[in-house]
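Example 3.2
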Amino acid sequence: MPSPFPPSIAVRPRDAASLLIYRQAGARVQVLMGKRRPGARFLPDVYVFPGGALDDTDARFAAEALARRAAAGGAHTALAPQWIPALAARHGLHVAALLRAALRESHEESGWRWSEADLPGLDSRGVRYIGRAITPAQSPRRFHARFFAVPDERMQQDPHADGELLDLRWVDVRNPERLPLIDVTEFMLAELLLELGGQRKAWPLLSYVNDAVRIRRLPISP
């Protein structure tokens, strides 16, 4: 299949982050998703997780949160160091900024926000890291996106928020409704199932080579 993107000068991917807010009922797992607006410049009319690019405030807020945690006697980075290579992040502050971006975008796009005042740590009771993906080189808008997941009980819905996503709904991870999803979304849903089932042995990176999907995996250290 020919590329949908015209030949162009390579665009450097922007750092981005998405959040999979999930809920479980027995073996059934659902994830909060919404439809992008028809006039969106990137992925119009497609169902996605809340997410978007880092902005100038994310690193500043992340630094302040880590400083407060250190002042309270916590670790300077409550973010597990072994996650940094998996996230392809430069250092602990960059990891925290990515996480802050995912939570901020969730609130802006869906009205759901983290239930506590401070950034969470990347641990089993809070946020899970799912994987990352890089937009094809031919795309005029490119992102290096990291995907996090959090159970719905750790989030709060803001009744006064007017989210950017349309038709916000809980979607079964197997997508029986056949909603329009892109390959990255389907891949991360499958990874979430493996993560919740304790079946993952590596962190994935999804990218594209000559329009074909390539999956690379970084083993999870014991």
